[in-house]
Design a protein that fits this description.
Radius of gyration: 13 Å
Number of strands: 5
Structural class: mainly beta
Oligomer: single chain
Helix content: under 10%
Strand content: over 45%
Largest sheet: 5 strands, mixed
Shape: globular
Number of helices: 0
Low-confidence stretches: 8-18
Distance between the termini: 35 Å
Length: 85
């Protein structure tokens, strides 16, 4: 069974500059956030093995605002727009 990876994006707490480097979340997977504007961010994810990735958007208090699954993937890029938060 493939591992389920949880990405917690604390964009309301951590500045976009902190996401400039790749962040390992395991020995075989990592992610990177890149600011496109003040409210839009690109999420890049890469892993050695194909699996399901759960992306959670959290606020500064750690409360879940939204979540989604990306299934059967080794890597992906998604743009997130936080203008409505």
């Amino acid at each position: 069974m493939k591992k389920l990876t949880l990405l917690a994006l604390l964009l309301t707490v951590i500045s976009a500059a902190a996401f400039a480097a790749e962040i390992p979340i395991s020995e075989t997977s990592k992610f990177k956030m890149v600011a496109k504007s003040d409210v839009k961010y690109d999420l890049y994810y890469a892993a050695e093995d194909e699996g399901t990735v759960k992306v959670c958007i959290l606020n500064a208090k750690g409360q879940k605002l939204n979540s989604c699954f990306v299934r059967k993937t080794k890597s992906f890029k998604r743009t997130y727009d936080f203008s409505q938060l």
